[in-house]
Amino acid sequence: MEMCSLKVLEVEGSPSRMLLRLMGERGCTTGHLMDYLQTLGNSEALQCLKPSGLQILIQPQSVALMSGHNLCLSCHAVGKSPVQYQWFKSKEEVPNSFSPDLVISPVHLKDAGFYICRVNCGDTFEFSQWAQVDVLNVITSYGQCYQSLEGRLKLVIQPQPQQINVGETLQLECGAVGRPIPRYQWHRNGVPIPNTTKRKLVIPHVMRDHQGRYRCEISSSTERMWTNEVDIVIDDVYAIGGVLDSSELALNSIPEHLYATDKVALLIGNLSYQNHPQLKAPMVDVYDLSNLLQQLNFKVVSLLDLTESEMRNAVDEFLLLLHKGVYGLLYYAGHGYENYGNSFMVPVNAPNPYRSANCLCVQSILKLMQEKETGLNVFLLDMCRKRNIHDDSAPNIVLRVTANIVFGYATCQDAEAFELSSSGFTNGVFVKFLKKRLLVDEKITVVLDKVAEDMGQFDATKGKQALEIRSSLSEKRALTDPILPGDSVDLAHSRQWAKAHELPEAMCLTFDCGAQIKLGFAAEFSNVLVIYTHIIKKPVDMSFCQAHVTDFSQDLDVDPKEMNRETPEETGIYLLSSSLPQHCLYTRISSLQKLRDELVFTVCLQGTFRAMDDDPVHWTKSINIGKPLIARLDLHQAMRRNSCLQTCMMPHSPSHSPCHSPGPEHHHHLHHRLHQAQDYNRLSPQHHYLDICERLQGAVGGSYYENLSQCHCEPTYDSPGGLSSSPSIPIEASDDINELQTVFINSLQLQQQ
After folding, report:
1. Threshold 0.90, pTM exceeds
2. Which candidate among 149, 550, 558, 742 keeps its CA 20 to 30 Å from the CA of 160?
3. Catalytic hit among 384, 545, 711, 713
4. Domain check: are 607 and 534 in the same one?
């Protein structure tokens, strides 16, 4: 007797329940399900899914904004009959607030609080969720702007250092604007202070134990940043003849700390090489370091896949921000080499074989940084340092003797660097250990020493890769040092650099048919934009509705097959996938540095009506979002300035070929790229394998394999690799104040209208 081959997919559920779960994971909405059931004629199931007579579609969102700006809270609902609105602040009705949009212009400090909207439809009513409004009293200087509430958090109030006496009250304040409203957590000497989750920190009757370095962690559901760290000095006081004497303040004060006048970081990851083996780890490494450095209050621009001219122009923009006392950090991951003590970074359009004329010399960049009288120069080079036998040039670069230079090489001289190879998304070996130490409040050379120790304990690379540190740093400078702006700050260039992270505002588009869609944006890197569309309102008689984007500039070379996908991963969005809104269509726009004009595209709405026999109907809208992110800096120009170019003493060879990111890789071995004198294109591929086994600490009788593929050096005989992934970047999200919702609604004594 044959056994039945039918199996229930999950023990605790039925095939129908499992099917619903799979549909949900694929982004299927309730509306889609109802359309399918309507087609099948399943009236009983349709009745179960039939919405109530009153439904709130758009909930008000919590927001933090500055006094004098405009406040707008929105609550939109639909019902069987016309709906009516009434807004409340706490338990009190807001006068003349009968619109779905509550607008207070301008908003004042007294308008801060909790708001809720009651929606009436006939004999029924519903309350929206609560929205908290935090109003910050900030006096802005000329040129400052904090109006973008749906993009990144913007820090507008920094805590100030204080020197107070024992027994007095310590008051610190910070603040950020944004939507959703930020969360706060104060820290003293790197340790979180319990029950300090508000913008203002108040400690009455302070003791000497309260002395230390304070800063606040500000976060949302998708983002985290830190305020400056400030010193709080607590002095003992002595009563002599009824008069307080604090003559020994100098003995009680804590040591003076070093400051940066600003912090600027340029991160470049080259992986999609046109004439050389492609890499995987640079994308993940740049992404992770970008998030960490932003927590240390660095102005960070993270870029992928740059040609020679784009790299030179990006370095020029980086140099413009440097001045006396600035901490400058340059991280590079990609192919590279070292000849006669000079390190060279290889652009994605470098020929095969490449020479110094096709690459950027790191020591040339350092020479220019020294001329800016920077406070700290940090170079983190995640590349191979093998000698390039095709390049006999020896640039004569004379560097000044300064005590503020730190080089962190991912590998030793004349050695290769490695990246971990697996089916998932992983860091290179260097960043795998660096990211665990980067936020530690210690001298940068001490941090790198500990990273070197960690790498030395890694079985997979013992005897193959070791971190090398070169430093002339005489002071105890750390990446965690606070920022104290100096007189020489170039505000114009700082604002220009900050624009490289400004996202276009999300927008709501209404079409003639009555459908509404949300068009949202997110940044994966400074030159990678994510666009997503979401249906927020569909006419009742429309059986199907979908919005997609199309008609992008030819400068971007967007592949139509990877646009408007139902999951972020399908379009190559691996790092942001967990942070993006669900049930949308996603499009990833890379290489924004190639954009010459404003980004104009078309949003196309496709719908079918039951009364029209489900024949598709199309509506379109043209959208112009200007130059988003790094496109504002016009890195595509061939020769804007000659600073980096002249110092390198090499001819300029810009490329006009667009770059593409490769797909995910599934190798499970070590690709050992041997350096050969012959031309790469004239030889047949060869692979050298080495299995590496690393013991999994704590595993019972088991081990796991974390395979390596050698990378970041001059390539020879390897097939292209793929991409890798990790965490998140700012996306707008809602803050649902669940705890207050029940208490406040229960306390409202309202009459039905």
Report:
1. no
2. 149
3. 384
4. yes
